[in-house]
Specification:
Blueprint: E1 5-10, E2 15-22, E3 26-34, H1 36-39, H2 47-69, E4 78-84, H3 88-105, E5 109-113, H4 114-128, E6 138-143, E7 148-156, E8 159-167, H5 173-183, H6 190-198, H7 261-273, H8 277-288, H9 295-300, H10 304-331, E9 336-340, H11 347-359, E10 364-365, H12 369-372, H13 377-388
Parallel strand pairs: 1-4, 4-5, 6-9, 9-10
Antiparallel strand pairs: 1-2, 2-3, 6-7, 7-8
Helix pairs in contact: 2-3, 4-13, 5-6, 5-7, 6-10, 10-11
The structure holds 5'-O-[(R)-(carboxyoxy)(hydroxy)phosphoryl]adenosine and zinc ion.
The site of zinc ion (ZN) has 5 residues, from α4.
């Protein structure tokens, strides 16, 4: 088959992204316009603002991706776009634009699940390195601001299929990072800040209990729907889809579910017990006055107690993610491990996975950091098998905020 140049478009949350990928194996261009500055004053993603920002950015971002790839609209083979999960209004911007382009250019249109995109970011990365040896079964941990999901991934011919064997019962790991950072006056998004600050704290200083899931997963289980005196801590992140993880479980295996709401609440209790509110407020104000705070700015505004707290929090989350994923890998006797999504950019997570998986003789693959967080190259890469199988979207398909991966 001749090379296929797929234009990918991603707009599911707070990044407007476009990329050109050749035949699912070579990244030609990758443009990401982040909305962090827009949402930062609100401490999280504001759906209405996200849609407006996508509308503003989508045309120049696509143009730039084509320009950087040395392509024009006519010379691309197909257009791929994220269908879900994500914010409906945000998804619709990318989908409407992709449909208009496909219609005007008479090119095939491919609808891609955002979570499948994260998994294919790993495949794209490995193919770029020349690694085509992939041993199955593959277990993929997709860990981001919206998801903490474990999938068994299979490939038959061109077609990929996925089985969900675990997901978060409440907060996604990235969501917990974001909420804890907000709680401690460290701004948004929290993951990258906590990642860098943790290296300066003592991870053994504060003990957090390992999340225990005693009861089976109940439909609509959500602490977040309750009104709570803990305010922002129990507000659901808007990019989190409600039903994207609740796929059927295998009958003969236990599930490997996660829960991070308890650790997050334990941080809140620590803040209350140790009377940290005033320090946090002055940190919030000081950092709020700096346009793009650097590590030194954060360090200048973080005392030892805070550094120890974030390091201990990160260690608890990383320890749980790694322990559960490796337990699932043993249970399902998998041959390869993928770790992907925004939180896969975390240094301690990478190091711990590499150390522990290597110890068990299990190869573990991550995307590079730019391909870990949301991007459109992963959407274009995931679209390639569908392009080869002529699995094109009808013009009447729409956004699915809670799209499950199967
Ligand atoms: O995949 P992504 O860009 O968007 C979603 O699909 O949600 O992930 C964003 C999430 C945010 O919660 C952010 O705080 C987290 O990934 N994140 C990190 C790091 N970089 C981004 N979490 C921990 N350590 C990091 N270095
Ligand atoms: Zn994502």
């Amino acid at each position: 088959m001749d090379s296929a140049y797929i234009l990918g478009i991603e707009s599911s949350c707070d990044e407007t992204a476009a990329a050109v990928v050749r035949s699912g194996e070579e990244l030609i261009s990758n443009v990401v316009a982040s909305q962090i500055a827009t949402h930062q004053p609100y401490g999280g993603v504001v759906p209405e603002l996200a849609s407006r920002e996508h509308l503003r950015a989508i045309v120049p971002v696509v143009r730039q991706a084509l320009e950087q790839a040395g392509k024009n609209y006519e010379s691309i083979s197909a257009i791929a776009v994220t269908q879900g999960p994500g914010l409906a209004g945000a998804l619709l911007v990318g989908i409407s634009y992709a449909k208009a382009l496909a219609f005007a250019l008479e090119k095939p249109l491919i609808a891609v699940n955002h979570l499948e995109g994260h998994i294919h970011a790993v495949l794209l990365e490995e193919r770029q390195k020349g690694n085509r040896e992939l041993r199955f079964p593959v277990l993929a941990l997709v860990v981001s601001g919206g998801h903490t999901h474990l999938y068994l991934a299979e490939q038959r011919g061109e077609t990929w299929s996925y089985e969900n064997i675990g997901h978060t019962r409440d907060d996604a790991a990235g969501e917990a990072f974001d909420k804890v950072a907000k709680l401690l006056g460290l701004g948004y998004p929290g993951g990258p800040v906590i990642d860098r600050l943790s290296a300066h704290g003592d991870p053994k200083a504060v003990k957090f209990a390992t999340p225990q899931l005693k009861h089976p997963d109940r439909k609509n289980f959500s602490k977040n729907s309750k009104s709570s005196k803990d305010g922002i801590l129990h507000q659901k992140s808007p990019c989190v889809a409600k039903s994207s993880g609740s796929a059927a479980s295998t009958e003969n295996h236990p599930r490997f579910d996660f829960s991070y709401s308890g650790i997050k609440t334990a941080v809140l209790r620590y803040v209350e017990t140790n009377d940290l509110a005033a320090t946090i407020e002055s940190r919030r104000r000081a950092l709020g006055q700096i346009v793009k705070p650097k590590l030194d700015d954060y360090l200048a505004n973080a005392d030892k107690q805070t550094l120890d707290l974030v390091a201990s929090f990160q260690k608890a989350i990383v320890g749980d993610l790694v322990a559960k994923t490796l337990a699932a890998a043993r249970e399902y006797d998998v041959a390869t491990l993928f770790v992907t999504g925004g939180v896969a950019a975390n240094n301690e997570l990478r190091q711990t996975f590499e150390r522990e998986a290597t110890h068990e003789g299990l190869p573990v693959y991550f995307p590079s950091r730019p391909l870990s967080t949301d991007n459109a190259a992963m959407i274009a890469a995931a679209a390639y098998p569908k392009f080869a199988a002529k699995d094109f979207a009808e013009m009447d398909f729409s956004a699915e905020a809670g799209l499950a991966l199967k």
